[in-house]
Amino acid sequence: MGSLPDAEQPCVTLDQVIRRRAETHADQVLISYPANESDFVDYTGADLERLTRLAATKYAAAFAQLDEATRPNGPSSTVALVGVSSLEYYITFLALQRLGLTSMFISPRLADQGFTHLLKSTQCKVIVASGPSEADMERVRATSGLPLSVIPMLSLSSLTDHQSTKPLPPIDDPDHALRFIIHSGGTTGLPKPVPLLSASWLLQAAKIAGRMPRVPTISTLPLFHSFGLATLLRCLVNGSRLSLLSASRPITAGAVLTGLAATHSRALVTVPYVLKFLAEVDDGVGIQRLAQLEQVIAAGSAVPDALGDALVVGAGVRLFHLYGLTECGALMEPCSTPASPELWNWVRPLPDAEPYLKFEPVSTSSSSGEGGETLYHLVVLPGLKAKVFADQPDGSYATKDLFRRHPTGANMWKFVARLDDIIVLVNGEKADPVPLEEAVGRNANVRAAVVFGAQRDALGMVVVAADRAAGMSEAEIVQSVLPDLRQGNERVPAYARIAPDALIIKPAGTPFPCTDKATVIRSLFLKQFAKEIDEFYAKREELANGGGAGGDGAAEGVVDDDADIRDLVRQTVRGELRLAEKEGGADLADDSDFFALGMDSLQATNVRSRLLKRVNLGGRTLATNVVFDHPSVELLTAHLLDVRAGQEENGGGPQSAEELAMRLLEKYSTFDEKPTPSTIPNPEKESILLTGATGALGIHILSTLLPNPSIRTIHCLVRAPDTASALSRIHAALSHSQLLSILPSPTLLSKISPIPCDLSSLSASSPSLGLPPAVYAEVAASTTRIIHAAWAVDFNRALRSFDASCLAPTHALLRLAAASPLERKPVVAFVSSIAAALRAGGPAAAAVASSTSSEAASPAPSSPGGSDESDGGDGRAKRTAIPEALHPWSAVAEGMGYGQSKWVAERMCAAAAASASAGVDARVLRVGQLCGDTAHGVWNTAEAIPTTVRAALTVGALPVVENEDGDEELAWLPVDVAARAVVELAFADTAGFRVWHVENERLVRWNAGFLPALRKAGLEFEAVPAREWVRRLERSEQDAERNPPVKLLEFFRKRYGAVGTEPHPVFDMTEARKFAPSLRGGTAVDEELVGKFLRFWIEEWSGPAGK
Description:
Blueprint: H1 14-24, E1 29-34, E2 40-44, H2 45-64, E3 78-82, H3 87-98, E4 102-106, H4 112-121, E5 126-129, H5 132-144, E6 149-152, H6 156-160, E7 179-183, E8 193-197, H7 198-209, E9 217-219, H8 226-238, E10 242-244, H9 253-263, E11 267-270, H10 272-279, H11 285-292, E12 295-298, H12 305-315, E13 319-320, E14 323-325, E15 329-334, E16 347-349, E17 357-363, E18 374-380, E19 397-405, E20 413-418, E21 423-424, E22 430-431, H13 434-441, E23 446-452, E24 460-465, H14 474-490, E25 503-506, H15 522-528, H16 530-547, H17 562-577, H18 601-614, H19 626-629, H20 633-644, H21 657-668, E26 686-691, H22 696-705, E27 711-718, H23 723-736, E28 752-756, H24 773-782, E29 785-788, H25 803-818, E30 827-833, H26 843-850, H27 897-914, E31 921-927, E32 930-931, H28 944-954, E33 957-960, E34 969-970, E35 973-974, H29 975-986, E36 994-998, E37 1004-1005, H30 1006-1016, E38 1022-1025, H31 1026-1035, H32 1049-1056, H33 1070-1075, H34 1087-1102
Parallel strand pairs: 1-10, 3-4, 3-5, 4-7, 5-6, 9-10, 9-11, 11-12, 12-13, 24-25, 26-27, 26-29, 27-28, 29-30, 30-31, 31-36, 32-35, 33-38
Antiparallel strand pairs: 1-2, 7-8, 14-15, 15-16, 17-18, 18-19, 19-20, 21-22, 23-24, 34-37
Helix pairs in contact: 1-2, 2-3, 7-8, 9-10, 13-14, 16-18, 17-18, 17-20, 21-27, 22-29, 25-27, 30-34, 31-32
């Protein structure tokens, strides 16, 4: 290899580079290209200068023959190159650069519309084409109406015949006007031309070359791939040999291995798809060869985690994954080192790029806030020299690439997905398809795997078989990928999993759209298979509506015998929950609650679907919530038998909700903890045990606790696999709620003690909260107060399904407090809900209310359009206030399982307080309707109120609510105020069991207050009667992607479709106000705060997460 001067002056043109290498590497190989599969021809620095000079001379002569209107002249003139990336293609590009002309690389795989768009938008009038592309360009010239000239690309033989020619005038480009143009892949529409400054890219190539080994390199990338271009520039700048594979032959593992051996290359530049080929070579030969290289550089797309782990961690391959964009150049480099190879898929910003990179948080949580995480959308800010494109008003470029922050919080990032890859289900859940596609795609029998399901109730996947699977049946291919699908399902939230019968198998050889990087063009792929996808969902819908197992019982696999139905139910549920794979989970008892075993809504839907296929229901169907309502083998079997017999449902099975509630109370009201032999004095500073810390209320509670100087530690039980992930979830929740910036000091975060713990998986007998004994012992010995704010917010589930997931953990927390060795046992503040007392009014409540303090009737200030219970004109004084006390079952008898479960938990707290052995200081805090915080107005856009308001943008109208009082009164309490009140009540200096209401005294009226405040904040809409608004929503665009309010159409029909709405009950807050100063006088949900809500919503809707 030739030597370079110690300090070369940077070149600003390729002409300068080629002239310099003709001197420094006159006899050293710079380019190698195959003459056949195993023999490569070498070209030195002198050869390259001569060939490009000859080509430039011949092209200049050809251009001189063109009409003056199309003749290229100088950097402002663009010449397009179309063809395969052969040596002639490379020589032509370099020759055009030596003529001082701008070169535009065009992939030969574009459609005519794409060709025409690029040529027209760049005002390109000359095309140099090779092979079949020459005829393609002639067709474009004839059909586009553009003034184009097509020139055949020079062959290598026509250049080697010339022995000498005149020297070319030097191209210095002092104004940095010389460019090359690359285009985007056209994955979402027409390809986009991206002009790149020659000087900037050469400077960047020199910097990147300094950070990489200077060794002979072989590349499989075409020159019209931006990293293929970058590789050429890097090798020319640092004077290292670049070998290319034949453009006329397909890229196979064999061709790569042969090329590596023939050229003695010590580095490989390729795409992840080729790495997969090499990893599949028999006997591990491909992986062994990769491990021998000094560097393997992957570009074009992310390397799947499993493949990268196998190469890097498993085999010691030195994988280098540089993150960059055609529009912005190289931005980040790998974090891995020889000492930490496991960081191969994490990157950190390059020093020159770091000041211009902004990571904007994007929530991928479901509408319930469960199962998601905060990802970060990368935006490149103005000022970066290599950035040549902007798509934001401030000059920034939104990459649409989503990253995950490293759990340590360090400046390390992992690419997760494209923003436009995220699939939004019909219920608003956001699913990342990449882990599933990577898992199935790595199977050797799979050519492509693409997830579908936008605006559907569940995901599916199209699998295109690889050539090696040509002789396999669909069933055999499905069986082949099932282990991979299971692994993929383990990497995504429950709602994003794909069932085995949701695979659409396409045979080997099926064509599909992909880029030159072998990356599937998702939008076009899904469009190509749209018919099969629609048919898949239509068949599911037919089954769901009773069109599956027929009335004659003759269909294959249909169960028509009552005696077999119980076994079928058990088998179906066991399979869906994959109990056989879990330790001790092979058996499923008749009375085991499905949801206590971890069943989610998608699995419940799948169980219903499978039963509809297999059980002969005589043409009848099953309710959508059948599994929620009958969540055990015993209950579901009984219901199926009733449906088969044509009988009405028998009231929910052998036990009514009230009977079940009483049984649960009996089960969880026993506290047999023995007194600790020796007690420990309470510590000077408090240690808090907090559950639900990543929820909207819980994170504000945590933010309120952190600055408190009397608190030493806050133990946060967080659903996560490990401590680092638990802390990452907490930090992400703080960031999303905009709470990190308002902390008095970042050092306060050190008070957080993250404890990975899945409370929802506990059973009544689960000792120690499922924690390791040492961890539990430390928490139990130090905890002085418990704030229990975690609960499953699922209004579909019946009471029995809250047993293991919510009631058992509550009992475990009460037992922890009861068994505490501290002199003063921990206070337990249970965050309940007004849903546990919504129907508690009536004569009994009136009697209690009449004996309460007169403070209950004292007027509280009202916000614009609002009032309080003393206002004789609003109707509230006519309704009895619900007292701060426990209430009989009638308060929740007609409600949902959610409110009933809170009712049971309240009485568990009372039992713990009354128990002689427990003696727990328990407090019940019934929290009402929460809204966004007062500082920033952060209010989850997936909730009903923000979704309603969004209709002003999509439908142009908002509903005027009608009820018996003429307007709807809203007791919205800002979440930060609620959090302060919870903390105040948890720390209240009082003893004994208490029940407190946490609501807002200052009401806002929907019609007279909220709607005018929205208008004042700048929202334009027509106010129409509620039922008319529902009709308009029904007639509006039904694509939930473009019109999100239609996702809640059924909810809106129930809420607004009837004549009038039920008024909000009045909750007495006499006692709560005594101990919670934050509740006194209420908080105005006024025009200023509504404006904050609206600004936050608009930003979310118009930002990357809302599009």
